[in-house]
Amino acid sequence: MDAVVAGSEDAAPAKVNLFLHVLGRRADGYHRLDSLAVFAGAADRLRVMPAATLSLEVGGAFGAALALEPDNLVLRAARALAAAGGIVPTGRLRLDKALPVASGIGGGSADAAAALRLLARWWGLAVGPAELAAIASGLGADVPVCLAGRAARMGGVGEVLGPAPSLPRCGLVLVNPGVPVATAAVFRARTGAFSAPADLAEGWADAAAMAADLAHCRNDLEAPARALCPAIDTVLAALASAPGCLLARMSGSGATCFGLFPAPAVAQTAAAALARPGWWCWGGGLHAA
Length: 289
Fold this sequence. Notes:
Elements: E1 9-25, E2 31-49, E3 54-59, H1 73-85, E4 91-96, H2 107-122, H3 129-139, H4 143-148, E5 152-155, E6 160-163, E7 171-176, H5 183-189, H6 207-214, H7 222-228, H8 231-240, E8 247-250, E9 257-261, H9 264-274, E10 280-284
Parallel strand pairs: 3-4
Antiparallel strand pairs: 1-2, 2-4, 2-5, 5-6, 7-9, 7-10, 8-9
Helix pairs in contact: 1-2, 1-3
């Protein structure tokens, strides 16, 4: 096992869309969104070690799903950052993949964002926040919010970030049924009218108040995702019936669903009770940025 050097690793926490409204479709085919994104304590981890050339090794519970990818988003992020800094990319990267792949919680985007943060430090690049954000935008719509790594109101196609309401202490359970869902397929299956932006409070006193407010919102991708992946119905029903659950909803384009709970300890207990073969379950609190 390689020794961990200070500053040589970074976390890539799961991004959770507490609501997601599809506001319209642009001329280029991409959709305009309104969403409140938060980050869970569940995370992949990325480490770098000295090496003369750039390489990536993928391991962890879900590493096998990415092992054969010739151009992982982490490597694309590393090369884009090196090009911006005018250097040759070097370093042996190790990604421990703890989050399920193609699951609606931004795992790949979070990994790319972690690569940008980590390698900017490791290479000693004088790259400012605005330049890093521009690189992130070129890698994917979710990468900018994952780069910031804190709760945010997302607009545009996801790259326009605004302040989030003040969040209370709460618990979060994430459940994935073990079925990957393609984002593009979910958007293609979406039908019906577009939504208006959500009207949210400036903050919430507790998790119950937040859940009550969010109940007036929705995830506009949930219906098409459920049609493509009926297992989402089972997950949502299980979450909604868990003791203490204040709100159950799908995140992003699925198939991961979340439950809001009064406190992290309650969420941990619920996640343990929800576990079943083939499901990925995690319970805890929000990521501390």
